[in-house]
Amino acid sequence: MTRVIDSDFGQRDDEQRDVLADDPPEPVVYAHEIPRRLVDQDAAKVIRRLSRHGHTAYLVGGGVRDLMLGRKPKDFDLATSARPYEVRDLFRNCRVIGRRFRLAHVLFAGGKIIEVATFRRDPSQHYEVIKPKIAHKIPLCAGPEPVRLIPAKSSDTEGDDADLLITNDNVFGEPHEDSIRRDFTINGLFYDLERGEVIDFVGGVADLEEHLLRTIGDPNVRFREDPVRILRAIKFSARLDMGLDPEVYDGMVRHRGDLRRAAAPRVLEEILRFLRGGAAQRSVFLAWDVGVLSEVLPEVASFLDDDVEGAELTFGRLKAVDALAAEDRLPGDAVLMAALLLGPIDEALEGVGDVPLAYEEFVRELSLRLSLPRRLKDRIRLLTMAQRRLRTGRIQSIARREYFADAATLFALDRIARGEELPKWARDPNDAVYEAEPRARRRRRRRRPRN
Ligand code: ATP
Ligand code: MG
User: Which of 42, 66, 77, 207 is the catalytic position?
Assistant: First the structure.
């Protein structure tokens, strides 16, 4: 049963709010062929089997978005009407994971996982139907006249004090309900692989065409429900070259302070996705510009604010990271984080007597704030500390260390940012191992003659 709440958030000048339907709403359906080579064949297999057993199954989320943009998706997530245990019973290579939120993982060769989630809804959310007054011109529109749904909360969402943080996200639902609980319109699309159709409840196709990032519903509500969405907005805008809807931009600025109450591992994950996504430079710049960086990484934000040259070098290193990503040579997380943190770390250590202590002081708060896993934290320390040796060309002492290649990569990123030539060992760190001093011949211990 659907109820329309009479409120005016999310309303724009170019749309008209309509009404009330008790039947499930009709999506707009677009015929859209996706080249077979772009679609993961294992995901296609899972969809086919689910459909053959009478379930609805769609590609969903980032995978559909990337396919529509002609990009190769990182992962192929599926949404289905089948319950998790029904999915498990259909696949031998399947396990159901999650305690609170159950998901089916179908496993394939090479460690590939196809995630299959049952359609869900946010129980506190109803939907409203919006009719854009200006119908966009989209070819192949096969559905009824364009509508889009937006979520409407039954609770009091006015005023900044209302606590909207999502706590219950695990109730099964219908496709339209699953679509509107997602974050951005471009992430709310379903793709019916068997019919070659995009199913759009939220106006995501129009926004993809216009390269416009819009939340599904009022950004002020959606960012307060989950502030990590602010970081996701930055990631998508930077990576996919999407314009930010002005209301979305205002919402990000207004609610960026809420990021301090977001779950640290999720914040860290989105920062890592900034760095891994091929648009590290633009992501970090946008985060800085919107004032979000000062919430999640204040030490980096104030370094960028105060040190013009240091800022240039930082963005230069990130640009070099993006160049590696474009060549499919993305370094690991520790190198990425170190490339971002190197400026503030160098600054904190400049001229101090007790370097390890100064380093610990610098990293303590940051690592608590982001819940840096121990391994990542230790690795960042190793790599940044190694730079002091590498800068003086003293590679011998560490050339055989397991972390040398990563340290040399970080060194190379920094040199590139400075527009300086790379020494040979930084161009190909693996060769350096052999160039470094020949290993001193091991002295054989003389066995003591037994008495
Ligand atoms: P990426 O390319 O970085 O993986 P993505 O859009 O695929 O981006 P995921 O974190 O993999 O993001 O999530 C998959 C989908 O789940 C999203 O496309 C979106 O529909 C939904 N989703 C993810 N995070 C949120 C969130 N915080 N709020 C609402 N929906 C979300
Ligand atoms: Mg994804």
Answer: 77
Tally of residues, the chain: 451
Please tell me if the CB atom of residue 226 comes closer than 6 angstroms to any atom of ligand 1: yes
Query: Could you identify the atom of ligand 1 that is nearest to the CA of residue 222?
Result: 28
pLDDT in tens, 273-332: 999 999 999 999 999 999 999 999 999 999 999 999 999 999 999 999 999 999 999 999
Q: Is 161 a catalytic residue?
A: no
- For the stretch 417-432, pLDDT in tens is 999 999 988 988 766 6
Dihedral angle, C-alpha 400, 406, 409, 411, nearest 10 °? -80
Residue pair 144/28 in contact by the 8 Å Cβ criterion? yes
Compute the distance from residue 62 Cα to the ligand 1 centre, in Å: 6
Ligand 1 site, residue 229, Cβ cutoff 6 A: yes
Which span out of 170-174, 335-339, 437-441 was modeled with the highest average pLDDT? Answer: 335-339
**182 touches ligand 1 (CB under 6 Å):** yes
Catalytic residue among 66, 122, 178, 183: 183
β-pairing, 77-80 with 113-118? parallel
**Closest CA relative to residue 233, chosen from 373, 247, 75:** 247
* Cα–Cα distances in angstroms (integers) from residue 216 to residues 245, 252, 337, in the given order: 12, 14, 31
Task: Please report the atom of ligand 1 found closest to the CA of residue 228.
Answer: 27
Share of the chain above pLDDT 70, in %: 82
